[in-house]
Amino acid sequence: MALNRRDFFRILGIGVISSVGVAGLGRISSRAEIEVVEHKASPQALIGKRWGMVIDMKKCLEAGEECINNCKAIKACHITHNVPSIPDKKKEIKWIWMDNFIHTFPELEDIRLKEHLKKFPFLLLCNHCDNPPCVRVCPTKATYKRKDGIVMMDFHRCIGCRFCMAGCPYGARSFNWIDPRPYLTSINPEFPSRKAGVVEKCLFCYQRLDEGKLPACVEACPSKALIFGDLGDPNSEIMQILKERFALRRKAELGTQPSVYYLI
Amino acid sequence: MYNADKVIVGILVLIIFFTTPFWLNYKRVEALPKPERAEKGEKCIEDTAYMRAYHMKLLDEWRNEKVRESKIYYQSSDGRIYLKSLQRTCMECHRSMANFCGRCHAMFAVKPDCWKCHIAPEEVKKWR
User: Hey, where are the domains in chain A?
Assistant: First the structure.
């Protein structure tokens, strides 16, 4: 069969154009695609330059032992975020918890100071540092800093390497060694739980802030010992308190710039 | 061709043998998965054909935008606005993970790990 070079390319060209065209038409008719509308952030969201918290341990102490032992803020947090209560200390999950002065401020240990401060309980949580070491070491960007200063965790991306736990100087992160579901005492259907192999911590209730609500612990504390606000706004309530009263930050000498302040 | 009769019969037998699954399931459409219809709500956020083909992409976008960018609302192509939430929006109408998500996923042997963390409506019932 005689087919010259020119005819060969002509036939080839027609073939390619017609097959691409047919495939294209088929795509248009069969694929149920839609236009995506870019939707803005929630209008009622609380917006801050740098969220922070002041915890007035004096109010907490004054509220009495019973209030401290059955801390409503801790309970509210654990119920809201489906935090399990695992009895084994090596496997426990902590978002917000109580500890004593020496464990909270080991660098301030002094015989006289200790006597004075021994009676204070301290409510501990993630410090949402301005310079968070956990974020620097996360290989998947599962943990990252939001524009408003919250050190976020995207559980979808966490691979459970625990570098962040090694990086955090405050022990604010916990690893799920086991499936946490069987250890839940109640379940909040509006928030996920976690699975084994994921690191978790306090997220400053980012989901509540996005919906215009204050963090669950702040809302639940009956003696208003937890005050949440914007450290970037000089007129905010917490900035006014910090101007007037002496406040401590945990391990400030490490330069992580914690956003949680303690009043004593 | 030598032994043409035997060879042709042999080829036919082989063709019939290898296509038995097609003959046995001929016109049996009940093998197709039928996800349960939504218990409430008249209309899904997008039309069925779109959701069937792209729900996984939509959910993937939702999780990134909601968690990482604080864009918590979704505007559907006909202008309605929804909260981006698997537990609070999707499962509000589709009240069963096993009968809605599970039926197709089991058929196609896909095992997304959504429900290892997200709480299925069935799981919520267990706690009440």
Answer: 51-263
- Number of domains composing chain B: 1
Complex prediction ipTM: 0.79
Spell A136-163 as b/e; 16+ CB within 10 A means b. Answer: ebbeeebbbbbebbbbbbbbbbbeebeb
- Chain A interface, Cβ < 8 Å to B: 31-35, 37, 39-42, 45, 82, 144, 146, 152, 154-156, 181, 184, 186-187, 189-195, 198, 206, 210-211
CB-CB contact of A174 with A92 (8 Å): yes
In chain B, how many H helices and how many E strands? 7, 2
Asked if B121's CB is within 8 angstroms of A190's CB, the reply is no
Give the pair of three-digit tokens for residue B80. 């309605």
**Out of 3.40.50.720, 3.30.70.20, 1.10.150.20, 3.30.70.270, which CATH number does the structure's domain A51-263 have?**
3.30.70.20
Q: pLDDT tens digit string along B22-54?
A: 888 787 766 678 888 887 888 899 988 899 999
Contacts of A35 in chain B (CB under 8 A): 77
Question: Is the pTM for the entire model greater than 0.95?
Answer: no
Residue A214 to residue A45: CA distance in whole angstroms? 10
